[in-house]
Design brief:
Length: 157
């Protein structure tokens, strides 16, 4: 069993913009960077099957019009042979806009919720590894539906 946690501090930064062709064309804004935290667990049933889950929180409510983010991931990985691995999973990417009394969003709150289903395959031989995965939110109830294909090659020497 493996257990882990992370904390990423947030902060504020002053951002200056300069527009020389405009009189008084300097603008100063404060950029807010939300703090983040997360925790996860992975359990190996044997050397061939692993199940993992994690939860991530981001303090985006520090920015006007947004609520805090709460997202979860769950996955399973199984070695088919010594060289081949199959993976599958699920994760959320939830709409973090909030209702405001003096502002109306173009799309209703919740329309940007995405629920991703993932599957992938990996191949390892000697010092070489290749992985490919498909992540899709086509089954989400909201208006945003994405499909991504990720791949990677690794050579250890």
């Amino acid at each position: 069993i493996s257990i882990g946690a992370k904390v990423v501090s947030g902060g504020k930064s002053e951002v200056k913009s300069s527009f020389p062709s405009i009189v008084g064309g300097e603008q100063i804004q404060i950029a807010n960077y939300p703090w983040k935290t997360g925790a996860g667990i992975e359990y190996s049933f044997n050397k061939n099957i692993k199940v993992s889950a994690d939860y991530n929180y981001t303090n985006t409510s520090m920015q006007e019009g947004l609520k805090d983010r709460h997202d979860a991931h769950i996955g399973i990985e199984g070695n088919i042979t010594e060289k081949w691995t199959l993976r599958g999973g699920f994760f959320t990417l939830l709409d973090y806009r909030k209702t405001q009394p003096d502002f109306e969003w173009l799309d209703p709150i919740g329309d940007y919720d995405q629920y991703f289903i993932t599957f992938g395959v990996g191949f390892k031989q000697n010092n070489f590894a290749a992985n490919i995965a498909v992540l899709t939110s086509q089954f989400s109830p909201g208006i945003i539906k994405n499909t991504y294909v990720n791949g990677g090659l690794t050579l250890n020497f």
